[in-house]
Amino acid sequence: MSTRKVLVIVTSVGEYQKFGFRTGLWLGELTHFWDIAESAGIDLEIASIAGGAVPIDPESLAHDFLADHGTGARYRDRQFMNLLHGTKSVAEVSARNFDAIYLTGGHGVMYDFPESWELATLIAEFYESGKVVASVCHGAAGLLNVVLSDGKHLIEGKTITGFSWPEEDLAQRADAVPFNLETELKKRGANYQIAAQPFEPFTVTDGTLITGQNPASSIPVAEAVVKALS
Length: 230
Prior knowledge:
The chain is an alpha/beta fold and 230 residues long. The protein has 9 helices and 9 strands.
């Protein structure tokens, strides 16, 4: 059997519009997924919305180095980190070359994921080809404006999850983010689910759509994707 390949999507936005806070990719949501997928023999490629260098949320470094789960080792790996220096843009990649797409999080995605027509088109192509579409945390923002060929939103009637508003409040970013992700997912007809407690790992699978609630969910999302591709 040929090697499976996953396209990993990351943000190109490095700061909030309202305040001077820096943001970007939540690094652990990339590294944890990468570790699980790579160990299962899956190839991965990174693309960002605009292409080029990828900003990293500085808070993710502090958080992930304390919790670790391998993020520290990846951060010290020059070869791995160089993958974030010259990424392709989403306009330069094709669903034909991949078996799954994975949307990472970090608050930066709230600005560029929903606004990218190229990303929405790419995700629709993955989904309508029967391929796996996965997201974690704020990465679900990339699903908001995905419309299928029947004119319906991809997430309409789907059971999914994503970063919750109580978690946003606890993260002290409720006044900084451009919208309430939980509310916007529900507005598009999603059957939105959350864990019993904030920041607990929580993952939902609905057919070929796999979503995780928060940073702690990146590992179970990766495990679900590996299972779906096996």
